[in-house]
Amino acid sequence: MKATYMYGAGDVRIENVPDPVIQQPTDAIVRVVRSCVCGSDLHPYHSMQHSGAGRPMGHEMIGIVEDLGSAVSTLKRGDFVIAPFAFQDNTCVFCREGFQTSCIHGGWYGNTEVGGLQAELARIPQADGSLVSVPGIDERNELLPSLLTLSDVYLTGFHAAHMGQVSAGKTVTVIGDGAVGLSAVLASRQLGAERIILMGRHRSRTDLGIEFGATDVVAERGEGGIAKVMELTRGEGSHVVLEAVGHMPAYEQAYGVVRPGGVISRVGVPQYEEAPVGFGSLFGKNATLTGGPAPVRAYMEPAIQQVLNGQINPGRVFDRSVTIDGVPAGYRAMNNRDALKVLVTF
Amino acid sequence: MKATYMYGAGDVRIENVPDPVIQQPTDAIVRVVRSCVCGSDLHPYHSMQHSGAGRPMGHEMIGIVEDLGSAVSTLKRGDFVIAPFAFQDNTCVFCREGFQTSCIHGGWYGNTEVGGLQAELARIPQADGSLVSVPGIDERNELLPSLLTLSDVYLTGFHAAHMGQVSAGKTVTVIGDGAVGLSAVLASRQLGAERIILMGRHRSRTDLGIEFGATDVVAERGEGGIAKVMELTRGEGSHVVLEAVGHMPAYEQAYGVVRPGGVISRVGVPQYEEAPVGFGSLFGKNATLTGGPAPVRAYMEPAIQQVLNGQINPGRVFDRSVTIDGVPAGYRAMNNRDALKVLVTF
Fold first, then answer.
1. Within chain B, which residue ranges are assigned CATH 3.90.180.10?
2. What are the required cofactors (chains A, B) (predicted)?
């Protein structure tokens, strides 16, 4: 099969590799129908050290079950499934508490043990917990892009809003106009926020943000951006800040605009380990810092219903489509900001 | 009057200074009945640069109203009052949201504009918002020590537990066996926690912690302490961690023992600005970091009732009593850990 590998910064290639096979009785093999490129894939695209073996890429996917290990009980061949971007048994103590990305038996795609999902076929560990079937969907369904966003991007935005305790009457500031940021806008609207300030400077993206529910757009960054949000909130600051970037300037903007007693919820994978948290940043104003890798499995069923009944259309974040051979060009387009988010068709 | 001043690390003196007077129509003058020394007073006691003018000390107090500005409407002379450790109007937008330590018209005691409360008399700004009267209490009441803890220490422990979302069925780890840590144990018990692990190594203090509701005591620190808490929680970690110290090793213990999806709530004033918050500490396991200066005014009325009806006896944290002239010795005793918390009588 064809699969995507990264060999270093800027070096993405499509390789012919052996088809994956069942290794554990809890595995499934899925034929990928749609995959995509994630904003977080751009972090190694910028900084990865050269690797002779390469790193299999991709963690978002919808597809059709091709084969099942003997212990898988909730799926059958031919099922249309969504794969959350991390795998999990969905039964352990942390899964039951709604934090499936910390599953005791779970893990991540895209390494030597578990391949990536920007590929024609995928081995899915812990298939009963890691695949969610959606009856009545076929490969030509127009909802495929939106269903694919439930693998990661939309529900990552939703996780930000959920952990940030977005609710009616609160002012929400979303930092970042990438696909996760726009998804956080859409999710905040679903959770009842009336005032949603989107910080971003790419007009085509912030326009989609407005369609998703943003009430204000702030194009300025840094101190100027903070001043603008403070002005929009009568000097009070934002109840909730959803940080969908992962770089330090976004974190600094977040604690600059959060209101006393407010919440900063991060879903952009932090590209830093240390950050200000003392009296001058978080502590002095009782600001809460939360967020992490989204346990999308926890939010899947209601979101599928919202997509199927047309209440949300998060698939609008896809503005370019490539085949598997076009994936390297897709990375380039996202890296150059020519594309917001790239869909991969098979 | 006599008042306490600090002139540098280790240098606390009692000075004769002019009595405070009404400066604003919203002020009150209160004759102090009980004050005390706070763990946070020990931070400058360790590190303050020499100051020729000195810094007035103390922010905890109960007393009797002596004089009132013309705009004060809810108090009268002779009222017995509790002063929260920060002053506030208790009407601004942040006060209404329950974060009175961020009051737009509020501030802190112990500076050139507003004196300290380890003194015979105190000027209280924004008196309607900053003093809570307790009818039927006189200067000989046996509940005075517990009422004094509502000025700061007990309700700071309560704030930690409240922000940490302590509730029935959760495991709570309290880091620090000082008076705030022990208060956090007592508050966690009030909020329904059944398993309360107290990390501290001073036997007389942890014994009081057990009386306050701790179910386990971990005397080890650092990696050993983390390992012990993980062992006590079947390798899962603690749902809530209440950090009542403020130094980096306590923060490191906190993220070491917090469970995926758990909450670290800090009330020890951080003696650092930068700290780990990235994938390896908070983000990877969706840990939440919260806390800050306690808005004790928000919690005052129900806590007064709990003290008056004997449900809680937080005044047990006081294990030494001094007069105003004995305050420097009280600092020394707390600094040497000879005393847990020092009461000042007048």
1. 2-152+295-345
2. Zn(2+)
Q: Which residues contact A57 (CB under 8 A, 6 or more apart)?
A: A4, A5, A6, A12, A41, A110, A116, A118
Q: Between β-strands A258-266 and A238-243, what pairing exists: parallel, antiparallel or unpaired?
A: parallel
Task: Provide the CATH topology of domain A156-291.
Answer: Rossmann fold (3.40.50)
Q: Over the stretch B50-83, which tens digit does the pLDDT of each residue have? A: 999 999 999 999 999 999 999 999 999 999 999 9
Strands of chain A, DSSP E: 2-8, 11-16, 28-36, 55-56, 61-68, 80-83, 86-87, 107-108, 121-124, 132-133, 171-175, 195-199, 216-218, 238-243, 258-266, 274-276, 288-291, 320-323, 342-345
CA distance B126 to B92: 12
- Reported as a single tens digit per residue, the pLDDT across B128-139 is 999 999 999 999
Instruction: Classify domain B155-291 by CATH number.
Output: 3.40.50.720
Instruction: Identify residues of B whose CB sits under 8 angstroms from chain A CBs.
Output: 93-94, 97-99, 101-102, 163, 236, 259-261, 266, 269-270, 272-293, 295
Show the tokens assigned to A233: 């909130």
CATH number of B2-152+295-345: 3.90.180.10
Residue B139 main-chain phi, psi, to 5 deg: -75, -5
Considering only alpha carbons, which residue of chain B is nearest residue A267?
A: B283
Q: How far apart are CA B23 and CA B67, in angstroms?
A: 11
